[in-house]
Design goal:
alpha/beta
Length: about 160
């Protein structure tokens, strides 16, 4: 069986990408396929390196049964493009930054996370940082949808 290594990427690695990491890990366990996956998250910028996820992110995820508290922010490194099979950006700006940083032989690993989702009204995970609690809930809705579809699709391969 193939093991899938997936890196989720947002700006500072304190809201969207740690949410995706924690949700994907939790859903893989729920579906009994955790052994097929390795998940991590990182930021395109080093604003919050070493910090835990935003408290609002942690609270919103905890309400749905996901524990993000052990996670710590880090920045994407060149080695990530080698190590991970998929490097999934939360939005087009992140994807553009990743394409500039990624060695050309690994460009095929890059993509938008929500390309796995079924919610066709959006293809980017919006940044909830400057909004209220509803924004964090909306992020969770999008992430749960895309992570479920991604896990089921990849686990079948």
């Amino acid at each position: 069986m193939t093991r899938h290594c997936v890196l989720f990427v947002c700006t500072g690695n304190i809201c969207r990408s740690p949410t995706a990491e924690g949700v994907a890990r939790g859903l893989a366990q729920k579906h009994g396929v955790a052994h097929l996956f390795e998940f991590d998250s990182a930021g395109t910028h080093d604003y919050h390196v070493g910090e835990p996820p935003d408290p609002r992110t942690v609270r919103a995820a905890a309400k749905r049964g996901y524990d993000l508290s052990p996670l710590r922010a880090r920045r994407v490194t060149e080695f990530d493009f080698v190590r991970f099979d998929r490097v999934l950006a939360m939005d087009r700006e992140h994807l553009a930054l990743l394409k500039r940083a990624c060695p050309p032989p690994h460009h095929g690993k890059l993509g938008l996370f929500l390309d796995f989702g079924e919610r066709v009204e959006v293809d980017e995970v919006p940044d909830p940082y400057y909004g209220d609690a509803r924004g964090f809930e909306h992020v969770l809705d999008l992430v749960e949808d895309a992570a479920t579809r991604m896990i089921l699709k990849l686990a079948a391969n």
